[in-house]
């Protein structure tokens, strides 16, 4: 691991230090988990955005497949 310096305002630092998890595990551990969660969420958001761009929200297949939407059918159960 590499030590880094970050700057937090006094109120945020005080709130962080009052937290039970921070008191139990330490600031660094909690901030590492928070950074990991943030990056995972950003990745999930990017994947969701890519799916929306690729498949669209409107259910259309795009100009390349225009007219084929009506040809598809769900199998009978």
Provide the β-strand percentage band. under 5%
Structural class of the secondary structure composition? mainly alpha
Mean pLDDT across residues: 88
Largest sheet: none
- What is the H/E order? HHH
User: Based on DSSP secondary structure assignment, what is the total number of beta strands?
Assistant: 0
Description:
It contains three helices and no strands. 57% of the residues lie in helices and 0% in strands. The radius of gyration is 23 Å and the shape is elongated. It has a domain of 30 residues. With 77 residues, it is an all-alpha fold.
Question: Strands, helices and their partners?
Answer:
Blueprint: H1 10-18, H2 20-25, H3 27-55
Notable features of this structure?
single chain, 77 residues, mainly alpha
Offer a concise description of the structure.
With 77 residues, this protein is an all-alpha fold.
């Amino acid at each position: 691991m590499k030590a880094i310096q970050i700057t937090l305002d006094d109120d945020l630092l005080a709130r962080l230090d009052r937290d039970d998890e921070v008191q139990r595990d330490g600031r660094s551990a909690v901030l590492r988990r928070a950074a990991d969660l943030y990056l995972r969420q950003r990745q999930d958001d990017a994947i969701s955005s890519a799916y929306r761009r690729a498949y669209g929200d409107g259910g259309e297949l795009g100009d390349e497949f225009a007219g084929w939407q009506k040809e598809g059918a769900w199998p009978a159960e």
